Amino acid sequence: MTALSDPDNWVAEHGDYLYRYAMMRVRDPAVAEDLVQETFLAALKAQGSFSGKSSEKTWLVGILKHKLIDQVYRARNGMQVEDIALIADNFADRFDESGHWRAEIAQWSDPDLALEKDEFWRVFEACVERLPPKMARLFLLKEMDGLSGEELCKALDISTTNNVWVMLSRARLRLRDCLEANWFTGRGSGET
Amino acid sequence: MTSCKEVSDLLSTSLDTRLPVSRRIGLRFHLLLCKMCSRYQQQLKFLHRAATMYTERAPRPGDAGVVLTADAAQRLTQKIRESR
Known about the structure:
The structure holds 2 protein chains of 2 kinds.
Chain A: H1 10-26, H2 29-45, H3 56-75, H4 83-88, H5 111-114, H6 118-130, H7 133-143, H8 149-156, H9 161-184
Helix pairs in contact in A: 1-2, 1-3, 2-3, 6-9, 7-9, 8-9
Chain B: H1 4-16, H2 21-33, H3 35-56, H4 70-83
Helix pairs in contact in B: 1-2, 1-3
């Protein structure tokens, strides 16, 4: 069992981590700071519920995740893109009439090496940012926060879990194309 | 036979949820014969792995814009003090 540390040290200890966690999803410094603040204030109130089974950081991230889902839910009315259009966009061009890939899916050389390079992560981040906002949120909530299909439907106002999976598939295809263009064949030099 | 177009969605969805047996059989059969979709599968798995690593990566000094500014840290510290 571990106890919580002095809240006076929370900002120094966890501030950057939580802020970065929030920034990766909301991409707005002011909103991210608000989320971190809400997290700390909620944590102060909930100190008694800390069981010590997880680390302090994990516990704080857990609270931040709830704040993030609330935030996505509050912001979703601002997202007017039709899901169907989003799903169809760009996709049909990738395949010919008989459903074969139009352009070759090239072999990537040593993808695991990329994971060790800081420059790769900047390209990765830029590629996520280039996704349509709703797709980016969906991808991050799924891959980083591990939300279920039902939770994703609710948070992003998508009609069926099937549409969630299809939209995720299209997000991954775009990300894959972006990484290929800007890292795996683009000599790692960044923007097009 | 399942087309590459359908397979691209099935490969992605198989990362998220369990596919029905009939779909899984069609997928496996297609992958045996299709080099492009096999590569695509590897790349989706890589993407999945990268996203997981991205979550766990701690902030680094070079990550511009993703650390709290001194002012922001000050504001947060102040808020915590006020609320205690």
